[in-house]
Design a protein that fits this description.
Layout: H1 2-5, H2 12-50, E1 54-58, E2 66-68, E3 75-76, E4 81-86, E5 90-91, E6 96-98, E7 103-114, E8 122-130, E9 133-142, E10 147-158, E11 163-168, E12 174-176, E13 182-187
Antiparallel strand pairs: 1-4, 1-13, 2-12, 3-11, 5-6, 6-11, 7-10, 7-13, 8-9, 8-11
Length: about 190
């Protein structure tokens, strides 16, 4: 080491020490860059997880047969059974999904009803509403058969804070016993 300090650059030990020093400097710079990139990736993943939004719910919690409606006006459907509520943005007490971040969302509403007897009027109809405005409807009204179902699937560009709910339309009713009536959504991007 004294030889290196004395300026004997041709000493093989000194050359090795100089190369090791250069490698250490390069390694330290690479490590700092990797730590910075890892920190950025961790923050990005945290933002992605915080914005996750997906839920799937069905009308009844238990397996027993029950109908809701008809009502004198449009009423928000409260889905009791939660299959998934990723992010916690579906409120099971109010039936409202609150959009956590702006983006393109996929919504699916499936309804089912039972008129009770053949040739009895069947009126199963719901409206998917965003901030109180109808975005889509699923409807089955007839007297041809005792049971029927309908599904509506839509893609909607929404903003953070938008309120999305399914409303049972005036004069309509839903019957369920095996998770036939569902409401689901997820953030596409």
């Amino acid at each position: 080491m004294r030889e290196c300090a004395a300026g004997l650059d041709s000493c093989s030990c000194c050359l090795i020490l100089r190369d090791v020093s250069k490698l250490r400097t390069k390694l330290d710079a690479t490590l700092a860059r990797l730590e910075s990139e890892s920190s950025l990736a961790t923050r990005s993943l945290g933002r992605l997880e915080a914005g996750r939004a997906a839920f799937s719910v069905s009308l009844l919690k238990d397996g027993g047969f029950r109908c809701i409606g008809p009502f004198g006006g449009d009423e928000v459907v409260i889905y009791e059974h939660v299959f998934l509520n990723l992010g916690g943005h579906y409120n099971g007490s109010t039936g409202v999904f609150t959009v956590p971040q702006a983006g393109l969302y996929t919504f699916a509403v499936t309804l089912h009803s039972d008129a009770g007897a053949p040739r009895s009027p069947l009126a199963a109809c719901t409206g998917l509403q965003v901030n109180g405005r109808v975005a889509a409807e699923a409807r089955e009204q007839n007297a041809d058969d005792q049971e029927d179902s309908a599904t509506a699937v839509v893609l909607l560009q929404l903003n953070a804070g938008d309120a999305v709910a399914v409303k049972l339309l005036k004069g309509c009713f839903l019957c369920d016993e095996s998770h036939y009536n569902t409401f689901s959504a997820f953030l596409l991007y």
